[in-house]
Protein backbone atom coordinates (compact mmCIF):
# COMPACT_ATOMS: atom_id res chain seq x y z
CA UNK A 1 0.00 0.00 0.00
CA UNK A 2 1.32 3.38 -1.01
CA UNK A 3 1.72 6.27 1.28
CA UNK A 4 -1.12 8.07 -0.45
CA UNK A 5 -3.40 5.07 -0.04
CA UNK A 6 -2.55 4.90 3.65
CA UNK A 7 -3.40 8.55 4.09
CA UNK A 8 -6.76 8.10 2.36
CA UNK A 9 -7.59 5.06 4.43
CA UNK A 10 -6.79 6.93 7.64
CA UNK A 11 -9.49 9.48 6.86
CA UNK A 12 -12.24 6.96 6.06
CA UNK A 13 -15.04 6.50 8.55
CA UNK A 14 -14.84 3.41 10.70
CA UNK A 15 -17.75 1.02 11.29
CA UNK A 16 -18.83 0.34 14.80
CA UNK A 17 -18.75 -3.27 15.80
CA UNK A 18 -22.32 -3.26 17.12
CA UNK A 19 -24.49 -1.55 14.50
CA UNK A 20 -22.32 -0.87 11.51
CA UNK A 21 -22.85 2.89 11.78
CA UNK A 22 -19.92 4.87 10.44
CA UNK A 23 -17.97 6.96 12.97
CA UNK A 24 -14.85 9.03 12.59
CA UNK A 25 -12.18 7.60 14.93
CA UNK A 26 -11.21 9.90 17.83
CA UNK A 27 -7.62 10.42 18.76
CA UNK A 28 -6.55 10.01 22.39
CA UNK A 29 -6.22 13.79 22.70
CA UNK A 30 -9.78 14.28 21.41
CA UNK A 31 -11.08 11.76 23.91
CA UNK A 32 -9.35 13.55 26.83
CA UNK A 33 -10.70 16.93 25.71
CA UNK A 34 -14.18 15.49 25.30
CA UNK A 35 -14.11 13.91 28.71
CA UNK A 36 -12.84 17.14 30.27
CA UNK A 37 -15.58 19.22 28.63
CA UNK A 38 -18.19 16.71 29.70
CA UNK A 39 -16.83 16.66 33.24
CA UNK A 40 -16.86 20.44 33.46
CA UNK A 41 -20.43 20.64 32.20
CA UNK A 42 -22.06 18.25 34.64
CA UNK A 43 -21.51 20.18 37.89
CA UNK A 44 -23.96 23.03 38.46
CA UNK A 45 -23.11 25.95 40.72
CA UNK A 46 -23.31 25.15 44.41
CA UNK A 47 -22.44 21.47 44.08
CA UNK A 48 -19.19 19.64 44.77
CA UNK A 49 -16.59 19.71 41.97
CA UNK A 50 -15.55 16.51 40.21
CA UNK A 51 -11.97 15.28 39.94
CA UNK A 52 -11.27 17.07 36.67
CA UNK A 53 -12.57 20.37 38.05
CA UNK A 54 -10.51 19.93 41.20
CA UNK A 55 -7.37 19.91 39.06
CA UNK A 56 -8.27 22.55 36.48
CA UNK A 57 -10.36 25.20 38.24
CA UNK A 58 -8.93 27.90 40.47
CA UNK A 59 -9.61 27.53 44.20
CA UNK A 60 -10.81 30.62 46.01
CA UNK A 61 -12.01 31.76 49.43
CA UNK A 62 -15.34 33.29 50.46
CA UNK A 63 -15.97 36.53 52.29
CA UNK A 64 -16.36 36.46 56.07
CA UNK A 65 -19.83 36.58 57.68
CA UNK A 66 -20.68 39.62 59.82
CA UNK A 67 -20.48 37.61 63.05
CA UNK A 68 -16.84 36.75 62.30
CA UNK A 69 -16.02 40.45 62.05
CA UNK A 70 -17.63 41.01 65.46
CA UNK A 71 -15.39 38.34 66.97
CA UNK A 72 -12.39 40.00 65.31
CA UNK A 73 -13.34 43.32 66.96
CA UNK A 74 -13.50 41.61 70.36
CA UNK A 75 -10.03 40.15 69.82
CA UNK A 76 -8.76 43.56 68.70
CA UNK A 77 -9.89 45.09 72.01
CA UNK A 78 -8.37 42.28 74.06
CA UNK A 79 -5.02 42.47 72.26
CA UNK A 80 -5.04 46.28 72.53
CA UNK A 81 -5.22 45.76 76.27
CA UNK A 82 -2.73 42.91 76.46
CA UNK A 83 0.04 44.47 74.41
CA UNK A 84 -0.54 48.05 75.55
CA UNK A 85 -0.17 46.83 79.12
CA UNK A 86 2.44 44.05 78.92
CA UNK A 87 4.66 46.05 76.56
CA UNK A 88 5.38 48.37 79.49
CA UNK A 89 6.19 45.61 81.99
CA UNK A 90 9.92 45.50 81.19
CA UNK A 91 10.41 49.16 82.14
CA UNK A 92 7.87 48.92 84.99
CA UNK A 93 9.79 46.09 86.66
CA UNK A 94 13.37 46.90 85.61
CA UNK A 95 13.70 50.61 86.38
CA UNK A 96 13.53 52.17 89.86
CA UNK A 97 10.77 54.53 90.97
CA UNK A 98 13.22 57.42 91.46
CA UNK A 99 13.50 58.03 87.69
CA UNK A 100 17.29 57.68 87.53
CA UNK A 101 16.99 55.41 84.46
CA UNK A 102 13.81 56.94 83.09
CA UNK A 103 10.24 56.20 84.20
CA UNK A 104 10.11 53.04 86.35
CA UNK A 105 8.40 51.45 89.33
CA UNK A 106 9.82 48.29 90.93
CA UNK A 107 13.59 48.63 90.29
CA UNK A 108 14.33 44.89 89.95
CA UNK A 109 16.96 45.24 87.20
CA UNK A 110 17.32 43.65 83.75
CA UNK A 111 17.30 40.00 84.81
CA UNK A 112 14.49 40.48 87.31
CA UNK A 113 12.35 42.22 84.70
CA UNK A 114 13.06 39.60 82.05
CA UNK A 115 12.26 36.86 84.55
CA UNK A 116 8.91 38.33 85.61
CA UNK A 117 7.76 39.28 82.11
CA UNK A 118 8.72 35.83 80.83
CA UNK A 119 6.77 34.24 83.69
CA UNK A 120 3.75 36.34 82.71
CA UNK A 121 3.98 35.03 79.15
CA UNK A 122 4.30 31.48 80.48
CA UNK A 123 1.26 31.87 82.74
CA UNK A 124 -0.87 33.40 79.95
CA UNK A 125 -0.30 30.33 77.79
CA UNK A 126 -0.80 27.66 80.47
CA UNK A 127 -4.21 28.95 81.56
CA UNK A 128 -5.88 28.35 78.14
CA UNK A 129 -6.13 24.66 79.11
CA UNK A 130 -8.53 25.59 81.90
CA UNK A 131 -10.55 27.81 79.57
CA UNK A 132 -10.71 25.05 76.97
CA UNK A 133 -11.95 22.40 79.42
CA UNK A 134 -14.63 24.76 80.76
CA UNK A 135 -15.75 25.66 77.22
CA UNK A 136 -15.71 22.23 75.57
CA UNK A 137 -17.12 20.34 78.52
CA UNK A 138 -19.30 22.72 80.55
CA UNK A 139 -20.22 26.21 79.32
CA UNK A 140 -19.43 26.47 75.61
CA UNK A 141 -17.09 29.01 74.02
CA UNK A 142 -19.31 32.09 74.28
CA UNK A 143 -20.23 31.83 77.96
CA UNK A 144 -16.64 30.96 78.84
CA UNK A 145 -15.37 34.10 77.07
CA UNK A 146 -17.88 36.26 78.99
CA UNK A 147 -16.86 34.65 82.30
CA UNK A 148 -13.14 35.23 81.76
CA UNK A 149 -13.72 38.79 80.55
CA UNK A 150 -14.94 39.47 84.08
CA UNK A 151 -11.82 37.89 85.56
CA UNK A 152 -9.63 39.96 83.21
CA UNK A 153 -11.33 43.20 84.28
CA UNK A 154 -10.64 42.46 87.96
CA UNK A 155 -6.93 41.97 87.23
CA UNK A 156 -6.73 45.20 85.25
CA UNK A 157 -8.39 47.12 88.04
CA UNK A 158 -5.80 45.83 90.53
CA UNK A 159 -2.97 46.80 88.17
CA UNK A 160 -4.31 50.34 87.73
CA UNK A 161 -4.85 50.90 91.46
CA UNK A 162 -1.41 49.63 92.52
CA UNK A 163 0.50 51.55 89.82
CA UNK A 164 -0.53 55.04 90.90
CA UNK A 165 2.40 56.97 92.42
CA UNK A 166 0.95 56.95 95.95
CA UNK A 167 0.58 53.16 95.91
CA UNK A 168 4.13 52.70 94.55
CA UNK A 169 5.55 55.06 97.16
CA UNK A 170 3.90 53.00 99.91
CA UNK A 171 5.26 49.66 98.65
CA UNK A 172 2.10 48.27 97.03
CA UNK A 173 3.72 47.98 93.58
CA UNK A 174 5.29 44.51 93.68
CA UNK A 175 2.43 42.73 95.47
CA UNK A 176 -0.14 44.42 93.30
CA UNK A 177 1.79 43.60 90.14
CA UNK A 178 2.09 39.90 91.00
CA UNK A 179 -1.60 39.63 91.92
CA UNK A 180 -2.61 41.50 88.78
CA UNK A 181 -0.56 39.41 86.36
CA UNK A 182 -1.83 36.17 87.90
CA UNK A 183 -5.47 37.24 87.52
CA UNK A 184 -4.95 38.84 84.10
CA UNK A 185 -3.13 35.71 82.91
CA UNK A 186 -6.08 33.59 84.00
CA UNK A 187 -8.47 35.92 82.16
CA UNK A 188 -6.53 36.11 78.92
CA UNK A 189 -5.97 32.34 78.91
CA UNK A 190 -9.68 31.63 79.20
CA UNK A 191 -10.38 34.02 76.34
CA UNK A 192 -7.53 33.00 73.99
CA UNK A 193 -8.39 29.30 73.88
CA UNK A 194 -11.95 30.11 72.80
CA UNK A 195 -11.95 33.25 70.69
CA UNK A 196 -9.79 31.76 67.90
CA UNK A 197 -12.09 28.74 67.31
CA UNK A 198 -15.18 30.93 67.84
CA UNK A 199 -14.32 33.12 64.85
CA UNK A 200 -13.90 30.10 62.59
CA UNK A 201 -17.16 28.60 63.92
CA UNK A 202 -18.96 31.53 62.29
CA UNK A 203 -18.19 30.02 58.87
CA UNK A 204 -20.41 27.00 58.18
CA UNK A 205 -19.41 25.64 54.77
CA UNK A 206 -17.64 22.29 55.02
CA UNK A 207 -17.55 21.03 51.42
CA UNK A 208 -16.00 22.52 48.29
CA UNK A 209 -18.46 23.93 45.76
CA UNK A 210 -18.35 25.20 42.18
CA UNK A 211 -19.25 28.85 41.58
CA UNK A 212 -19.39 31.09 38.53
CA UNK A 213 -18.04 34.58 39.24
CA UNK A 214 -19.52 37.80 37.87
CA UNK A 215 -16.81 37.76 35.22
CA UNK A 216 -17.95 34.32 34.05
CA UNK A 217 -15.03 32.38 35.50
CA UNK A 218 -15.84 29.03 37.07
CA UNK A 219 -14.00 28.63 40.38
CA UNK A 220 -14.05 26.31 43.37
CA UNK A 221 -15.04 27.73 46.75
CA UNK A 222 -12.57 26.05 49.10
CA UNK A 223 -13.49 26.08 52.83
CA UNK A 224 -9.84 25.49 53.78
CA UNK A 225 -8.83 28.70 51.99
CA UNK A 226 -11.66 30.58 53.71
CA UNK A 227 -10.45 29.36 57.11
CA UNK A 228 -6.96 30.53 56.10
CA UNK A 229 -8.41 33.95 55.20
CA UNK A 230 -10.35 34.10 58.48
CA UNK A 231 -7.19 33.58 60.49
CA UNK A 232 -5.24 36.08 58.40
CA UNK A 233 -7.91 38.71 59.16
CA UNK A 234 -8.08 37.55 62.78
CA UNK A 235 -4.34 37.99 63.10
CA UNK A 236 -4.57 41.35 61.39
CA UNK A 237 -7.10 42.42 64.04
CA UNK A 238 -4.72 41.22 66.75
CA UNK A 239 -1.97 43.42 65.40
CA UNK A 240 -4.16 46.46 64.83
CA UNK A 241 -5.00 46.12 68.51
CA UNK A 242 -1.37 45.79 69.49
CA UNK A 243 -0.73 49.25 68.02
CA UNK A 244 -1.82 50.44 71.45
CA UNK A 245 1.92 50.57 72.01
CA UNK A 246 1.94 53.72 69.88
CA UNK A 247 0.15 55.47 72.75
CA UNK A 248 0.96 53.71 76.02
CA UNK A 249 4.77 54.32 76.03
CA UNK A 250 4.20 58.08 75.75
CA UNK A 251 1.55 57.92 78.48
CA UNK A 252 4.04 55.99 80.61
CA UNK A 253 6.77 58.57 80.01
CA UNK A 254 4.72 61.77 80.23
CA UNK A 255 2.00 60.90 82.77
CA UNK A 256 2.73 57.61 84.46
CA UNK A 257 2.17 53.86 84.12
CA UNK A 258 -1.25 54.12 85.76
CA UNK A 259 -2.62 56.24 82.90
CA UNK A 260 -1.55 53.67 80.29
CA UNK A 261 -3.05 50.82 82.29
CA UNK A 262 -6.29 52.81 82.72
CA UNK A 263 -6.55 53.24 78.94
CA UNK A 264 -6.18 49.48 78.57
CA UNK A 265 -8.89 48.89 81.16
CA UNK A 266 -11.31 51.17 79.32
CA UNK A 267 -10.62 49.52 75.96
CA UNK A 268 -11.15 46.06 77.37
CA UNK A 269 -14.43 47.13 78.96
CA UNK A 270 -15.55 48.29 75.50
CA UNK A 271 -14.62 44.91 74.02
CA UNK A 272 -16.57 43.12 76.74
CA UNK A 273 -19.65 45.19 75.83
CA UNK A 274 -19.27 44.11 72.19
CA UNK A 275 -19.20 40.47 73.32
CA UNK A 276 -22.37 40.86 75.36
CA UNK A 277 -24.34 43.10 72.98
CA UNK A 278 -23.47 40.99 69.90
CA UNK A 279 -24.73 37.73 71.45
CA UNK A 280 -27.64 37.27 69.04
CA UNK A 281 -25.37 37.49 65.98
CA UNK A 282 -22.94 34.74 66.90
CA UNK A 283 -23.05 31.10 65.84
CA UNK A 284 -22.76 29.43 69.24
CA UNK A 285 -21.97 25.75 69.63
CA UNK A 286 -23.02 24.07 72.88
CA UNK A 287 -20.59 22.23 75.18
CA UNK A 288 -20.05 18.61 74.30
CA UNK A 289 -20.44 16.95 77.70
CA UNK A 290 -17.59 14.72 78.78
CA UNK A 291 -15.63 15.07 75.54
CA UNK A 292 -12.28 15.97 77.15
CA UNK A 293 -12.56 13.11 79.65
CA UNK A 294 -13.54 10.76 76.86
CA UNK A 295 -10.57 11.88 74.77
CA UNK A 296 -8.12 11.08 77.56
CA UNK A 297 -9.83 7.73 78.15
CA UNK A 298 -9.44 6.93 74.45
CA UNK A 299 -5.76 7.96 74.54
CA UNK A 300 -5.18 5.65 77.51
CA UNK A 301 -6.75 2.75 75.59
CA UNK A 302 -4.43 3.52 72.66
CA UNK A 303 -1.40 3.45 74.96
CA UNK A 304 -2.16 0.21 76.79
CA UNK A 305 -3.06 -1.59 73.55
CA UNK A 306 -0.26 0.03 71.52
CA UNK A 307 -2.75 0.55 68.72
CA UNK A 308 -4.27 3.83 67.51
CA UNK A 309 -7.52 2.08 66.54
CA UNK A 310 -7.95 0.22 69.83
CA UNK A 311 -10.54 2.68 71.26
CA UNK A 312 -12.87 2.11 68.30
CA UNK A 313 -15.98 0.08 69.24
CA UNK A 314 -15.55 -1.98 66.05
CA UNK A 315 -11.96 -2.82 67.01
CA UNK A 316 -13.05 -3.90 70.47
CA UNK A 317 -15.76 -6.10 68.97
CA UNK A 318 -13.46 -7.68 66.38
CA UNK A 319 -10.58 -8.30 68.81
CA UNK A 320 -12.50 -9.57 71.79
CA UNK A 321 -12.04 -6.38 73.82
CA UNK A 322 -13.79 -6.01 77.14
CA UNK A 323 -14.84 -2.39 76.50
CA UNK A 324 -18.27 -2.83 74.99
CA UNK A 325 -20.04 0.27 76.32
CA UNK A 326 -17.83 3.04 74.96
CA UNK A 327 -19.42 6.51 74.82
CA UNK A 328 -18.02 7.30 71.37
CA UNK A 329 -18.09 5.93 67.83
CA UNK A 330 -15.34 5.08 65.33
CA UNK A 331 -15.57 8.52 63.74
CA UNK A 332 -14.69 10.23 67.02
CA UNK A 333 -11.49 8.16 67.22
CA UNK A 334 -10.59 9.10 63.63
CA UNK A 335 -11.03 12.76 64.60
CA UNK A 336 -8.92 12.26 67.72
CA UNK A 337 -6.13 10.71 65.65
CA UNK A 338 -6.21 13.73 63.36
CA UNK A 339 -5.96 16.02 66.38
CA UNK A 340 -2.91 14.06 67.53
CA UNK A 341 -1.28 14.83 64.18
CA UNK A 342 -1.75 18.54 64.90
CA UNK A 343 -0.36 18.19 68.43
CA UNK A 344 2.67 16.38 67.05
CA UNK A 345 3.29 19.23 64.61
CA UNK A 346 3.12 21.70 67.50
CA UNK A 347 6.02 20.02 69.31
CA UNK A 348 8.56 22.22 67.50
CA UNK A 349 6.83 25.50 68.32
CA UNK A 350 8.48 26.21 71.71
CA UNK A 351 11.72 27.15 69.92
CA UNK A 352 9.81 29.61 67.80
CA UNK A 353 8.12 31.16 70.84
CA UNK A 354 11.48 31.67 72.56
CA UNK A 355 12.49 33.79 69.58
CA UNK A 356 9.13 35.57 69.41
CA UNK A 357 9.22 36.47 73.11
CA UNK A 358 12.41 38.47 72.69
CA UNK A 359 10.58 41.40 71.09
CA UNK A 360 8.74 42.29 74.31
CA UNK A 361 11.63 41.65 76.69
CA UNK A 362 15.27 41.72 75.61
CA UNK A 363 14.58 43.81 72.50
CA UNK A 364 13.09 46.50 74.76
CA UNK A 365 16.23 46.46 76.91
CA UNK A 366 18.39 46.54 73.79
CA UNK A 367 16.52 49.63 72.53
CA UNK A 368 17.19 51.31 75.87
CA UNK A 369 20.94 50.84 75.32
CA UNK A 370 20.85 53.09 72.23
CA UNK A 371 20.22 56.80 71.81
CA UNK A 372 16.45 57.25 71.58
CA UNK A 373 16.31 60.79 70.11
CA UNK A 374 12.99 61.30 71.92
CA UNK A 375 11.61 57.83 71.08
CA UNK A 376 10.68 55.71 74.14
CA UNK A 377 12.56 52.41 74.09
CA UNK A 378 9.36 50.36 74.36
CA UNK A 379 7.78 52.19 71.40
CA UNK A 380 9.94 50.25 68.93
CA UNK A 381 7.78 47.15 69.50
CA UNK A 382 5.19 48.70 67.20
CA UNK A 383 7.22 47.78 64.14
CA UNK A 384 6.21 44.17 64.75
CA UNK A 385 2.44 44.72 64.28
CA UNK A 386 3.04 47.39 61.62
CA UNK A 387 4.95 44.89 59.49
CA UNK A 388 2.13 42.35 59.95
CA UNK A 389 -0.56 44.89 59.02
CA UNK A 390 1.41 45.83 55.88
CA UNK A 391 2.29 42.31 54.71
CA UNK A 392 -0.99 40.48 55.43
CA UNK A 393 -2.91 42.35 52.68
CA UNK A 394 0.01 41.87 50.29
CA UNK A 395 0.04 38.14 50.87
CA UNK A 396 -3.74 37.73 50.94
CA UNK A 397 -4.55 39.83 47.85
CA UNK A 398 -1.43 39.38 45.71
CA UNK A 399 0.95 36.58 46.63
CA UNK A 400 -1.41 33.78 47.67
CA UNK A 401 -3.91 34.32 44.78
CA UNK A 402 -0.98 34.38 42.34
CA UNK A 403 0.32 31.08 43.70
CA UNK A 404 -3.17 29.55 43.39
CA UNK A 405 -3.54 30.78 39.80
CA UNK A 406 -0.21 29.12 39.02
CA UNK A 407 -1.42 25.96 40.83
CA UNK A 408 1.49 26.18 43.27
CA UNK A 409 0.30 24.90 46.65
CA UNK A 410 1.61 26.71 49.73
CA UNK A 411 0.40 24.37 52.44
CA UNK A 412 0.55 25.00 56.21
CA UNK A 413 3.62 22.85 56.82
CA UNK A 414 5.58 24.85 54.24
CA UNK A 415 4.38 28.15 55.70
CA UNK A 416 5.28 27.15 59.25
CA UNK A 417 8.77 26.06 58.20
CA UNK A 418 9.31 29.37 56.41
CA UNK A 419 8.17 31.21 59.56
CA UNK A 420 10.89 29.53 61.61
CA UNK A 421 13.54 30.51 59.08
CA UNK A 422 12.42 34.15 58.90
CA UNK A 423 12.44 34.28 62.72
CA UNK A 424 16.07 33.17 62.64
CA UNK A 425 16.84 36.25 60.52
CA UNK A 426 15.41 38.42 63.30
CA UNK A 427 17.76 36.88 65.86
CA UNK A 428 20.74 37.14 63.54
CA UNK A 429 19.99 40.83 62.99
CA UNK A 430 19.53 41.40 66.74
CA UNK A 431 22.97 39.89 67.37
CA UNK A 432 24.47 42.27 64.79
CA UNK A 433 22.75 45.27 66.43
CA UNK A 434 24.05 44.19 69.83
CA UNK A 435 27.56 44.02 68.39
CA UNK A 436 27.18 47.56 67.02
CA UNK A 437 26.05 48.77 70.45
CA UNK A 438 29.12 47.26 72.09
CA UNK A 439 31.31 48.89 69.45
CA UNK A 440 29.99 52.42 70.22
CA UNK A 441 30.80 54.77 73.07
CA UNK A 442 30.63 56.04 75.64
CA UNK A 443 30.08 52.76 77.48
CA UNK A 444 30.84 50.11 74.80
CA UNK A 445 30.07 46.65 76.25
CA UNK A 446 28.70 48.15 79.49
CA UNK A 447 25.74 50.26 78.26
CA UNK A 448 24.16 52.83 80.60
CA UNK A 449 27.35 53.13 82.67
CA UNK A 450 28.11 56.21 84.77
CA UNK A 451 29.91 57.87 81.84
CA UNK A 452 26.59 58.10 79.97
CA UNK A 453 24.65 59.96 82.68
CA UNK A 454 23.26 63.33 81.50
CA UNK A 455 21.10 65.46 83.81
CA UNK A 456 20.76 62.54 86.19
CA UNK A 457 19.58 60.05 83.55
CA UNK A 458 21.73 57.38 81.86
CA UNK A 459 21.83 57.62 78.07
CA UNK A 460 22.42 54.85 75.56
CA UNK A 461 25.53 54.34 73.45
CA UNK A 462 25.93 56.49 70.35
CA UNK A 463 23.89 54.43 67.90
CA UNK A 464 20.42 55.40 66.65
CA UNK A 465 17.50 53.42 68.06
CA UNK A 466 15.89 53.15 64.59
CA UNK A 467 18.55 50.67 63.50
CA UNK A 468 16.62 48.05 65.48
CA UNK A 469 13.57 48.27 63.15
CA UNK A 470 14.36 45.29 60.83
CA UNK A 471 14.55 42.90 63.79
CA UNK A 472 10.94 43.66 64.70
CA UNK A 473 9.87 43.44 61.05
CA UNK A 474 11.42 40.00 60.62
CA UNK A 475 9.59 38.83 63.75
CA UNK A 476 6.31 40.18 62.36
CA UNK A 477 6.71 38.52 58.96
CA UNK A 478 7.59 35.23 60.62
CA UNK A 479 4.35 35.41 62.64
CA UNK A 480 2.27 35.60 59.45
CA UNK A 481 3.70 32.27 58.36
CA UNK A 482 4.26 30.41 61.64
CA UNK A 483 1.70 31.79 64.09
CA UNK A 484 -1.24 32.28 61.70
CA UNK A 485 -0.70 28.84 60.18
CA UNK A 486 -0.55 27.35 63.68
CA UNK A 487 -3.96 28.84 64.54
CA UNK A 488 -5.35 27.55 61.26
CA UNK A 489 -3.88 24.08 61.78
CA UNK A 490 -5.20 23.86 65.34
CA UNK A 491 -8.73 24.63 64.16
CA UNK A 492 -8.90 22.54 61.00
CA UNK A 493 -7.36 19.42 62.56
CA UNK A 494 -9.38 19.48 65.78
CA UNK A 495 -12.59 17.43 66.16
CA UNK A 496 -15.69 19.66 66.20
CA UNK A 497 -16.21 18.92 69.89
CA UNK A 498 -12.60 19.72 70.87
CA UNK A 499 -11.78 22.94 69.01
CA UNK A 500 -10.95 24.91 72.16
CA UNK A 501 -8.94 22.09 73.71
CA UNK A 502 -6.70 21.58 70.66
CA UNK A 503 -6.31 25.35 70.43
CA UNK A 504 -5.15 25.33 74.05
CA UNK A 505 -2.58 22.64 73.19
CA UNK A 506 -1.22 24.95 70.50
CA UNK A 507 -1.13 27.86 72.95
CA UNK A 508 0.57 25.62 75.52
CA UNK A 509 3.62 25.45 73.24
CA UNK A 510 3.99 29.18 73.90
CA UNK A 511 4.14 28.43 77.62
CA UNK A 512 6.90 25.87 76.99
CA UNK A 513 8.70 28.51 74.95
CA UNK A 514 8.42 30.92 77.85
CA UNK A 515 9.82 28.26 80.17
CA UNK A 516 12.81 27.83 77.86
CA UNK A 517 13.23 31.61 77.75
CA UNK A 518 13.12 31.65 81.55
CA UNK A 519 16.00 29.17 81.55
CA UNK A 520 17.94 31.56 79.31
CA UNK A 521 17.42 34.51 81.70
CA UNK A 522 20.89 34.06 83.32
CA UNK A 523 22.38 34.81 79.88
CA UNK A 524 20.47 38.10 79.64
CA UNK A 525 23.37 40.32 80.64
CA UNK A 526 26.02 42.33 78.82
CA UNK A 527 27.91 41.21 76.80
CA UNK A 528 26.68 37.57 76.84
CA UNK A 529 23.27 38.45 75.41
CA UNK A 530 24.79 38.95 71.94
CA UNK A 531 25.75 35.27 71.87
CA UNK A 532 22.31 34.29 73.13
CA UNK A 533 20.78 36.05 70.11
CA UNK A 534 23.23 34.25 67.79
CA UNK A 535 22.42 30.90 69.37
CA UNK A 536 18.68 31.46 68.95
CA UNK A 537 19.23 32.34 65.28
CA UNK A 538 21.00 29.03 64.67
CA UNK A 539 18.39 27.08 66.65
CA UNK A 540 15.41 28.61 64.84
CA UNK A 541 16.92 28.07 61.38
CA UNK A 542 17.84 24.47 62.17
CA UNK A 543 14.41 23.68 63.57
CA UNK A 544 12.74 25.17 60.48
CA UNK A 545 14.70 22.85 58.20
CA UNK A 546 14.19 19.79 60.42
CA UNK A 547 10.47 20.56 60.79
CA UNK A 548 9.97 20.61 57.01
CA UNK A 549 11.98 17.42 56.52
CA UNK A 550 9.88 15.52 59.09
CA UNK A 551 6.39 16.81 58.31
CA UNK A 552 6.40 17.78 54.64
CA UNK A 553 4.45 14.59 53.80
CA UNK A 554 1.47 16.08 55.68
CA UNK A 555 1.09 18.70 52.94
CA UNK A 556 -0.11 15.95 50.61
CA UNK A 557 -2.65 14.78 53.22
CA UNK A 558 -4.05 18.25 53.92
CA UNK A 559 -7.24 18.02 51.85
CA UNK A 560 -8.03 14.51 53.08
CA UNK A 561 -7.67 15.52 56.75
CA UNK A 562 -9.74 18.67 56.24
CA UNK A 563 -12.48 16.62 54.55
CA UNK A 564 -12.91 14.30 57.55
CA UNK A 565 -15.84 16.40 58.81
CA UNK A 566 -17.24 17.21 55.37
CA UNK A 567 -20.14 14.78 55.66
CA UNK A 568 -21.03 15.85 59.18
CA UNK A 569 -23.86 18.29 59.87
CA UNK A 570 -22.94 21.77 61.00
CA UNK A 571 -23.05 20.62 64.60
CA UNK A 572 -22.12 17.00 65.32
CA UNK A 573 -24.91 14.75 66.61
CA UNK A 574 -25.18 14.62 70.39
CA UNK A 575 -23.18 11.95 72.13
CA UNK A 576 -23.65 10.83 75.70
CA UNK A 577 -24.23 13.81 77.98
CA UNK A 578 -24.45 16.36 75.16
CA UNK A 579 -27.03 19.09 74.70
CA UNK A 580 -28.68 20.19 71.51
CA UNK A 581 -27.36 23.30 69.78
CA UNK A 582 -28.60 26.65 71.00
CA UNK A 583 -29.29 29.34 68.45
UniProtKB/TrEMBL annotation:
Transmembrane segments: 145-168, 174-199, 219-238, 258-278, 339-356, 386-403, 415-438, 471-492, 504-525, 531-551
Primary residence: membrane
Localization terms from the record: Membrane
UniProt region (Disordered), positions on chain: 1-55, 563-583
Bias (Basic and acidic residues) ranges: 573-583
Membrane topology: Multi-pass membrane protein
Pfam families the record matches: PTR2
InterPro entries per record: MFS_trans_sf, POT_fam
Keywords, ordered alphabetically: Membrane, Transmembrane, Transmembrane helix
Family classification: Belongs to the major facilitator superfamily. Proton-dependent oligopeptide transporter (POT/PTR) (TC 2.A.17) family.
Name the record gives this protein: POT family-domain-containing protein
Upper classification of the organism: Eukaryota, Fungi, Dikarya, Ascomycota, Pezizomycotina
